[in-house]
Design a protein that fits this description.
Blueprint lengths: L4 E6 L8 H10 L25 E8 L5 E8 L8 H5 L5 E3 L5 E3 L9 H5 L6 E6 L5 E6 L5 H4 L6 H5 L5 E5 H15 L7 E3 L9 E5 L16 H49 L2
Parallel strand pairs: 1-10
Antiparallel strand pairs: 1-8, 2-3, 4-5, 6-7, 9-10
Keywords: 4Fe-4S, Iron, Iron-sulfur, Metal-binding, Repeat
Pfam families: Fer4_11 (PF13247)
Organism: Mesobacillus persicus
Length: 276
């Protein structure tokens, strides 16, 4: 079995510099997106088809009555059981051998099912125009820099983090590191926890959070939508089996029909010959 890898984000070490955002834009050649002023340190409200990671900022009154400034590097979670992969009717979304969730732009038809079913709202459609001016759409999101991983490099966002808030490594080692870190910061952050939601089979971007997930705008218990499970795990296999069965039945009928036509035709010829 191939070794699985995860990106580790310790929000308690993040200083909000946004170097991860810049590195992602540069490496993936993503265009700038002018934004309205949001009234805080946060430059974008959420990730988009052209901005694959965003530094979120929250002012939060903690359990001791003090004000905390909470930062979080936000990007695709690369779920082990990914809703986007389940609902894609064209099989344009798949897993790499390291566990990352990627979109094949050549196969994507821009239906939007992935965008509608992602529990983290991190995959979005971008509109293009062909040479005739006709519009079409493609799904985009963080790839975890799979092109860099294939060359033995780490994701661009990780390599540029100057505070050590992000790391990338083997899954079991990183999870152990995250659990140890939570124990270290519990006195200061009583609600500290590892965010690696099991409702989506665990993720390949895990967090050490200082507060409850909802404080950071994250779902407390994200799950793959039931509709996605029914579609991928039940409806699709049954549909394929039915299509296969119908195809076999049609093929059988075609062969049988040809056989009987030939047989009947031969009998008519013989009958006609006996009358001569």
């Amino acid at each position: 079995m191939a070794t699985k890898y995860v990106k580790y984000v310790d929000v308690t070490k993040c200083d909000g510099c946004r170097a991860c955002m810049v590195a992602c834009k540069n490496w993936n050649d993503l265009p700038a997106e002018p934004q309205d002023f949001l009234g805080s340190m946060q430059s974008h409200a959420n990730v988009t088809a052209d901005t694959w990671n965003v530094l979120t900022f929250v002012e939060h009154e903690n359990s001791k009555g003090n004000l905390d400034y909470l930062f979080r590097h936000s990007s695709c979670f690369h779920c082990t059981d990914a809703a986007c992969e389940k609902v894609c009717p064209e099989n344009a979304i798949s897993y790499t051998d390291k566990g990352m969730v990627v979109v094949d732009q050549e196969v994507c038809v821009g239906c939007g099912y992935c965008e509608q079913n992602c529990p983290f709202d991190v995959i979005h459609l971008k509109t293009y125009k062909d040479e005739n001016g006709k519009e079409y759409r493609k799904a985009h999101k963080c790839t975890m820099c799979t092109d860099r991983l294939d060359e033995g490099l780490q994701p661009a966002c990780v390599t540029t983090c100057h505070t050590g808030a992000m790391e990338f490594g083997e899954k079991d080692e990183i999870i152990s590191k995250a659990e140890k870190r939570v124990k270290e910061i519990k006195e200061r952050y009583p609600n500290a926890q590892v965010y690696n939601p099991q409702g989506v089979g665990g993720t390949h971007t895990i967090y050490v959070l200082a507060e409850k997930p909802s404080v950071y705008g994250l779902p407390e218990n994200p799950k793959v939508p039931t509709s996605a499970v029914l579609w991928k795990d039940y409806a699709q296999p049954i549909g394929k089996a039915m299509v296969g069965g119908v195809a076999m039945a049609l093929a059988g009928a075609f062969v049988a029909n040809k056989f009987f036509d030939k047989k009947n035709g031969g009998q008519e010829e013989d009958g006609g010959g006996n009358h001569e």
